[in-house]
């Protein structure tokens, strides 16, 4: 016989696709031994590494999916992304054309979008 808490948990559980479509914040840091380390702090133990930014982003997305699928299958609670409604995650930034060009070229070398590259730089500096 199930307890009231178990029944409530069962009725509140969303389909797996719901959790896979949630947007979790990713932190990427450069590794002292080379490459990068990425983690999703809202999903305990969900972290990975890669030699390039592109590889690291691919790896963390795969790690997120595996983490969510495994947690869902064993019927553990999946934390929702933490958010602060004060911040939208969007920022309009004006910069000199020369800086824009240098950043865009550096992102191209890493084979990532300018947004991904700027996010990496900001994460590493904060």
TrEMBL record:
Superkingdom assignment: Bacteria
One Gene Ontology biological process: regulation of DNA-templated transcription
Name of this chain's protein: Toxin-antitoxin system HicB family antitoxin
Pfam families the record matches: HicB_lk_antitox (PF15919)
SUPFAM superfamilies cross-referenced by the UniProt entry: Ribbon-helix-helix (SSF47598), TTHA1013/TTHA0281-like (SSF143100)
Organismal lineage: Bacteria, Bacillati, Cyanobacteriota, Cyanophyceae, Nostocales
InterPro entries: Arc_rbn_hlx_hlx, HicB-like, Ribbon_hlx_hlx, TA_system_antitoxin, TTHA1013/TTHA0281-like
Transmembrane segments: none
Residues covered by the HicB-like antitoxin of toxin-antitoxin system domain: 24-87
């Amino acid at each position: 016989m199930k307890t009231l808490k178990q029944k409530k948990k069962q009725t509140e559980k969303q389909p797996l696709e719901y959790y896979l479509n949630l947007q979790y914040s990713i932190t990427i840091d450069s590794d002292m031994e080379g490459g990068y380390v990425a983690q999703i702090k809202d999903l305990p133990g969900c972290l990975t590494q890669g030699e390039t930014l592109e590889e690291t982003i691919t790896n963390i997305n795969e790690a997120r999916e595996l983490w969510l699928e495994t947690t869902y299958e064993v019927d553990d609670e999946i934390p929702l992304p933490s958010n602060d409604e004060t911040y939208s995650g969007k920022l309009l930034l004006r910069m000199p054309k020369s800086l824009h060009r240098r950043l865009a070229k550096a992102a191209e070398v890493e084979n990532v979008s300018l947004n991904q590259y700027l996010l990496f730089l900001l994460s590493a500096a904060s």
